[in-house]
């Protein structure tokens, strides 16, 4: 089933996107900072969410991992 139709899979994909963008911005900040519009702007926004809300994003990742593994 596609991640679009399954809510748990959609949340997993969004969390992975946020975490990946925040990690890549840490490695290559100049690439992420100069592209703030278009599709790269979406990645920049995900990176900002990952940086500013990192305790919440981390807690959501732990909860999602628990639900995937044990429920």
From TrEMBL:
GO cellular component, one term: Golgi membrane
Record key words, sorted: Golgi apparatus, Membrane, Signal, Transmembrane, Transmembrane helix
Membrane topology recorded in Swiss-Prot or TrEMBL: Single-pass type I membrane protein
Keyword Phosphoprotein included in the entry's annotation: no
InterPro entries: KISH_domain (IPR051523), Ksh1 (IPR009653)
Cellular compartment(s): Golgi apparatus membrane
Function, as annotated: Involved in the early part of the secretory pathway.
Family stated for the protein in its record: Belongs to the KISH family.
Protein name, entry field: Protein kish
Organism: Exocentrus adspersus
